[in-house]
Amino acid sequence: MVPLRFVAENSGYQVTYAKENNMASIRIEEGTAGAPAETPSQPSTPAPTQPPAGTPSQPSTPAPTQPPAGTPSQLTVKPYIVHGYVRDAAGKPIEGASVWADNTLLYDSNLLGVTDASGYYKLELPSLATTWRMGGEYSRQADGRTYRFDLVPEVDQPFAGNTGAVRNMTWKNDVGYLFVYPDFSSFDGDNLPMVELKDLEMTLIPVSSALDSGAGKTIVKRIGRMEYEGLGIDKIPLGRYKATIRWMPQGLEPMPQLIRVEGEGDFAESVEFDFSEKRGYLDDDYMMEFEVQYP
User: Region Disordered: start and end of each range (predicted)?
Assistant: First the structure.
């Protein structure tokens, strides 16, 4: 006898056996006997390819960054609008600065505005066939007095109202200038060399700081030619100082001199001063004038 299992595994037929009520039956059908049911094949996942040796990897390109809100670079020109930012020389916003648009067609016809906490201002211009020019002023209270400074636009040019403009302003003139005038007749001693201003050295000791512009440090400088006409010391941070001066001719020991604010009081070994109001050809800056006398 041939076992049914042998037939099922080797004949290529499907052989089934069943028994019911003492009767057995054998069914032989075409098919693949004993073969496991086929399962659909899964597509193979290709292995990641590696770049060939010696090929440098490409850096990722970062997304472009946008300027932070409230920066001058975001402002755009709009018809009948002039706006901009007012900042100090360090780029910090100035709040409360007065700005104005000067109508170049009509005399004394200005539009006024004030900067907010971010230093921003905006003026709406009337529909007039004219051009405008921008200006401004900034004030600070210190030591019982008011310091006023002119603001000049970075682009100091007129513009038409129907085109509008962006006009940013920077406050830079936060320093003062010291002029020194020797009393030459007092240096006419028999044993004294001829006095030269470059041999005079001034020491400024801060008493108080008017602005956050660097005042607070002792300043020692020789007298020299300033960027404006005249001899003295320029670009001194505004504040109240105690000034002394000494003569340092070559080959001799330094000699303290007497000093006073020009035309005020007696000569003394030192003098305290504040910078005067703007005047003369320094009408955009603060100054002070001194007289020096040989003791």
Answer: 30-74
Do 203 and 164 share a structural domain?
no
Say if residue 117 is in the same domain as residue 153: yes
Strand partners, 197: none
Q: Look at residues 121, 156, 171 and tell me which one is the last residue of a structural domain.
A: 171
d(CA 136, CA 97): 7
Domain co-membership, 278 together with 183:
yes
Domain count, the chain: 3
Does 49 reside within a domain? Answer: no
Cα–Cα distance measured from residue 35 to residue 37, given in angstroms and rounded to the nearest whole number: 6
pTM: 0.62
Structure tokens at 191: 């044993």
Is residue 280 within 8 Å of 177, Cβ to Cβ? no
**Residue 29 belongs to domain spanning:** 1-34
Residue 251 CA to residue 85 CA, distance in Å, equals 54
Q: For 209-257, what is each residue's pLDDT tens digit?
A: 656 555 578 999 999 988 877 889 998 888 889 999 999 988 889 999 9
CA proximity to 273, closest of 284, 262, 261: 261
Rounded Cα gap, residues 288 and 213, in angstroms: 18
Exposure b/e, 103-138, CB count within 10 A at least 16 = b: beeeeeeebebebbeebbbebebeeeebbbbbbbeb
Burial of 34 (0-12, 13-18, 19+ CB in 10 A): exposed
